Amino acid sequence: xxxxxxxxxxxxxxxxxxxxxxxxxxxxxxxxxxxxxxxxxxxxxxxxxxxxxxxxxxxxxxxxxxxxxxxxxxxxxxxxxxxxxxxxxxxxxxxxxxxxxxxxxxxxxxxxxxxxxxxxxxxxxxxxxxxxxxxxxxxxxxxxxxxxxxxxxxxxxxxxxxxxxxxxxxxxxxxxxxxxxxxxxxxxxxxxxxxxxxxxxxxxxxxxxxxxxxxxxxxxxxxxxxxxxxxxxxxxxxxxxxxxxxxxxxxxxxxxxxxxxxxxxxxxxxxxxxxxxxxxxxxxxxxxxxxxxxxxxxxxxxxxxxxxxxxxxxxxxxxxxxxxxxxxxxxxxxxxxxxxxxxxxxxxxxxxxxxxxxxxxxxxxxxxxxxxxxxxxxxxxxxxxxxxxxxxxxxxxxxxxx
Length: 402
Fold this sequence. Notes:
Layout lengths: L7 H8 L5 E8 L2 E12 L4 E2 L6 E2 L4 H14 L21 E2 L9 E2 L7 H6 L14 H6 L7 H8 L17 H13 L3 H10 L13 H4 L6 E3 L5 E3 L20 E2 L1 H12 L3 E2 L2 E2 L3 H7 L6 H4 L12 E3 L4 E3 L2 H8 L7 E2 L7 E5 L4 E6 L8 H8 L3 H22 L1
Antiparallel strand pairs: 1-2, 1-16, 2-3, 4-9, 5-6, 7-8, 10-11, 12-13, 13-14, 14-15, 15-16
C-alpha cells in the first residue's frame, strides 16, 4: 500500500527503544485508509498495540469539553460573553499580578470579569505551572487534584491571575475551570455532561474519565525516557475503573483512535457525523475560527513561535496561512485544525483534503528546564522521538499526493 512508508519514523523510534508503541490512523473522504498498530501497549507483558487500545489523551480532552459547552450555548444555558463568576463566584474577586515575575502579594484588581470565551481561548489570566515563571509557577505546582472540584477551585482562586482577562493567551487550567462551570450549570458531574452531549451521541463508548474493567486490559501503559534515554514503564499506574474525585475537563479523558476519529469527523463535517447532528454549523464555525489578535500572536507560546501561520479558535489551533504554517508544523491546508495532548497524542483535520490523521502514543514528557536545554542542544535520542510524528504526517501527505 502506498501509505506504508509513513510508518518508518515510528518504527525507528520503537527499534531505538525510545517508544513502546503507537496506533495511527488515516481517514479520508469517508473511509479509513490505514491503521498502523506498531510496537507494544505493554512491553514487559508482551501486549501489542491494537486499534482498540485505550490512551490517556491529556489536552485532547479540551476540545471535547468545549464542544459540550457549545452544545449548552445552543440550548441557551450560557453565552460566550457571560461572566463565569455567575456560576463560579470563587473567581468574582480574583486579583491580577502587578508584575508577572513579581511577588504574589503585589496585585491589582480585575479590569473586567473573566468570561466563558476567556476560558475557551486561554485568555483568562489563569495558567499552568509550566506556562508561567516563578513565583506564580510555584503556586500552581502546589494545587492538589486529588480533591473534589469545589475544593480545587477554591485553592485556584487564591492565586492571582498572570495577566488581565482577554489581554493575551496563557495556556492554562481554563478548561478545567470551564468543566466545573458546566457541571454546576447542569447540576451533575462533568462526566455525565460529556456523555449526554458529546460522547453518547457520537458513540464514543471507550471515551471517558475512567475505563471499564475490560477496557483496563486494553489500556496503554505510560512510559517515560529516563536520564539515560531508556524507557521507564508504568510511571502513572493502571487505568482507573472508577471516576476520579475531580473529573478535569482539560486533561482527564481516555479514548481510542476510532472514538476520537468520530469526534474529529463531527467537527470536520460541520457538527454532523453519520447523519447525527451533535453541534450546529455555527458552533463548529466558532470553534474553528481564529480569535487571536496580531498582538496576542506576537507572544511566544510555551517558548515557541507557535502562531506563525496559525491562529486559535475555541481550543483548536487553526491554520490561517498554509505556507507559513508548513515551515514549522508540516503539511495542512488552510483551515486545518487540531489540538494535541501532552503524552504525545495528536490529531489533525484538514478540510482542504477531507483528511483526518491520528497519532497515539503514551510518553510522559519532562517539562523541566534541563529537558528543554537537552532539546535545544540537539539530544539525538529526544530528537528521534520528537521527529516520529511530523515525519509520519509529511510522509502521509506525500503518499496521498502521489
